[in-house]
Amino acid sequence: MANAHWFKQAIVYHIMIDRFAGFKSGDWNKSEFLGGNIKSITKKLGYLKELGINTLWLSPFFETSAYHGYHVTDFMKVDPNFGGLEDLEELIKKANDNGIRIIADFVPNHCSKHHPFFLEAQHHKSSKYFKWFTFNKWPHDYLCFLDVKELPKLNLDYPATRDYIINAAKYWLSIGIDGFRLDHVMGPKHSFWKYFRKEIKAAFPQTVLIGEAWLEGIRFKHLKTLQIKNKFIRWLFRQLFRVSQDSVQKEYYGELDGVLDFRFQELMKIHITRSRDSGQIEILRSALKRHFAGYPRDYFLPTFLDNHDMNRFLFECHNDIEKLKAAATVQFQIEQPVIIYYGTEVGMTHNNPVVVNKPGSDLEARQPMNWQNPNIEVFNFYRELIKNRS
User: Fold this and answer.
1) Which residues are known catalytic residues?
2) Is 317 found in the same domain as 240?
3) Strands 148-152 and 144-145, how do they pair?
4) N vs C: which end of the chain shows fewer Cβ within 10 Å?
5) CA-to-CA distance for 139 and 123, rounded, in angstroms?
6) Which distant-in-sequence residues (6+ apart) come within 8 Å of 121 by Cβ?
């Protein structure tokens, strides 16, 4: 948390660039670009200012082979589908002028199979990029993100790979990004994260580094791609008791400034969405008090109700607006940074569930922002929560 104290007061608005603003009318339930872009986010700064947020979290804007941005083909360029570098610089400047900081999704563990470095390593064993990846049997058997063959895992033990990724992170910080949400932090080794933090903080001390360490959907066959401590025992323990999410989140203390609080989200779902008893709120508060008491006070645990990889909270509540309000009220009372996933503040929901490890089901939670028919009651409720927290 050192030198990133500003994040303690952060009210973060989480945007999926392709689906937030500027999108064309299209088939949202297909894995394709709809046209959302950075320039259109800049045009919506008035809306975000009215809502009252002070931090934007952008989905990956790097050159990519997929609409969501997580399949990176060039870590040093803005994808043309999202705009250009000048569009990003304009967003940063105008956001800052409105008192809004920007953090970016950064993906150091893997890249797209279409990345030119990987293609060269696959085609030429003598390539200088061969050691950037881990081939079990060259050229088609390689470590990847979990078992997703479209995402070859970067060999961050190799100094050239490690330094390239760190220099990419420094580049985006140099143009005004304030920090990173670090994707799949369980993939790289702890030694990488210690080095990453040292290098980043030396050059940009106010940068905030927030990790994503989520165990949901992890299967035994995936463990070989993870670098968490005691992973085999921990995986087995989770299958039996489902209590190890907290232990994984704590593992990055001293390496990152904090982690997304998936355990908080689990507790909210258990005690609010699945309950018909209003007395559950007090039981929830007790559970949350015990939860946060188990962490160091100088460790950020940004809270959220939903995100791009899971059901929207309102869907979990069977579209009961009052339950969403109850959950948001509790969330804003926690002394941790708050994250609002785009559309939650206007009552966005969906018809079909997101199923972890079911390809395409996450599109339900990634529908285009509802600009045409927002729930103004929910918007005003969120605006008031933000106003009262400030």
Assistant:
1) 183, 212
2) yes
3) antiparallel
4) C
5) 7
6) 127, 129, 130, 132, 133, 135, 139
Whether the CB-CB separation of 347 and 312 falls below 8 Å is answered with no
pTM: 0.97
Bridge partners (DSSP) of residue 15 are 58
335, 318 contact by CB (below 8 A): no
Residues 286, 380 within the same domain: yes
What residues make up the domain containing 117?
110-155
Q: In this predicted model, what pLDDT tens digit does every residue of 161-214 receive, in sequence order?
A: 999 999 999 999 999 999 999 999 999 999 999 999 999 999 999 999 999 999
Q: The domain spanning residue 145 has which CATH number?
A: 3.90.400.10
Tell me how crowded residue 185 is: count the other CB atoms within 10 A of its CB.
Answer: 28
Q: Indicate whether 270 and 354 sit together in one domain.
A: yes
Which CATH number do you get for residue 330? 3.20.20.80
Cα–Cα separations (whole angstroms), residue 318 to 167, 189, 273, 348, 356: 45, 40, 8, 12, 19
- Helix/strand/coil percentages in the chain, nearest 5: 40, 15, 40
* 235: confidence class by pLDDT, cuts 50, 70, 90: confident
Distance separating alpha carbons of residues 197 and 313, to the nearest angstrom:
33
Structure tokens at 154: 């970067």
